[in-house]
Amino acid sequence: MPVNAPAEYFAAEEKFRSAKSREEKIAAMEEMVRLMPRHHGSETALAQLKQKLAKLRKESSGKKGGSRTGIQKEGEAQVCIIGFTNSGKSTLLKALTGASPEISGYPYTTTRPEIGMMDYFGVKIQLVEIPPTFHPEDMSVCRTAELVLLLAKSESELKEIEDILKKNFIRTKAVYANPFTEPVSDTKEKIWNALGMIIAFTRKTDGTKSPMALPRGSDVEDFARRIHKDFVRNFRFARLWRRGMVKQVGLSYVLEHGDVVEIHAK
To answer: Does the pLDDT value for residue 67 go beyond 60?
Structure first.
């Protein structure tokens, strides 16, 4: 029994004990690993839990002849799109990313996760469409994603989807959209705002700029470290362009969306 484990851990442990399928056991154990306290006294228990989880995953993969998803994170963030059949998921994925998922008026056209890359002012965001069968292994992608986009046509439908997330121990931040009434551009902005990031631009001496996504509240030091840690160690000053103004700033200066930064090092 882990020391000082929260009540949610024991709820996940009970879910694991009562799980009927291997996929349900994996989902519950993933949640147990996430909720296990990280301190010296829990190191052994955490290691044992991870070993058991790895064994379960290996058994599951062997039974199916390979991983069902095998989705590798790409871009600055990963967003899962969830909704019932014919909720507009594939159409939205195509509109936001240019991907070519199969789209039809028939139910359950999507049987495996579909992936596309959304471009937001040069920053790439990975979108993953989860099939409406809500297979536990597909749903596991949502646990490690930065955001879940819930598509629903009504409040009751939204409540059903939220219940499915709870059943699968998914506590990832979620936002709601209705693709039948909401413009694609609004949904795109909603995704970006929910991710809690800003875009700052690196400025090279030749005047060219490149976008960099950072968590909201990041400062010049965070920006410089993303380029290379030596820029922090050898930092002299940064020149910053904001709303037509140019100023010289230090490492602790907090950045805003749209800032252009030129790092000067020793």
So the answer is: no
